[in-house]
Amino acid sequence: MQCRMCGCEFDPDQIPNRGCANCGKNCDSVVHCPECGYGNYVNYDQEFEFISKLKDKFKHIKKN
Q1: pLDDT digits (tens, 9 = 90+) for 21-58
Q2: DSSP string for 6-63
Q3: Residue 3 lies in a domain
Q4: Is 5 domain-assigned?
Q5: How far from 17 is each of 26, 58, 60, CA to CA, in Å?
Q6: To bridge 30 with a disulfide, which of 3, 39, 47, 50 should be the other Cys (CB 3.0-4.6 Å)?
Q7: DSSP 8-state symbol, 2
Q8: What is the pLDDT of residue 28?
Q9: Cα first-last separation, the chain
Q10: Buried (b) or exposed (e) across 12-31, using 16+ Cβ within 10 A?
Q11: 22 Cβ contact partners less than 8 Å away, ≥ 6 residues apart
């Protein structure tokens, strides 16, 4: 995974407690960057990929 704030590459499975500082919030869908602490949403990459594919389909339909 790449941090969207600082660009640090890291494996979310290798970070203890998902990098959470135990603030009391539910961070099940967030992995905090080990470098800057930014909360990266795990599902963001999947959603972005879906939106990109959908956008490409619309471009293809518009050309025809």
Answers
A1: 666 566 677 888 999 988 888 877 666 777 788 888 88
A2: T--B--GGGSGGGG----SS--TTEEE-TTT--EEETTHHHHHHHHHHHHHHHHHHHH
A3: no
A4: no
A5: 12, 40, 43
A6: 39
A7: B
A8: 72
A9: 37
A10: eeeeeebbbeeeeeebeebb
A11: none
Contact call for residues 12 and 42 (beta carbons, < 8 A): yes
Confidence at residue 8, expressed as pLDDT on a 0 to 100 scale:
93
Number of domains composing the chain: 1
Asked if residue 2 is part of any domain, the answer here is no
Residue 30 belongs to a domain: yes
Give the range of the structural domain holding residue 17, as residue numbers without chain letter.
12-63
Phi, psi angles (nearest 5°) of residue 20: -75, 140
Q: What is the pLDDT of residue 35?
A: 93
| Residues 6 or more apart whose Cβ sits within 8 Å of residue 27 | 18, 20, 39
Q: Cα–chain-centroid distance for residue 27?
A: 13
pLDDT recorded at residue 55: 84
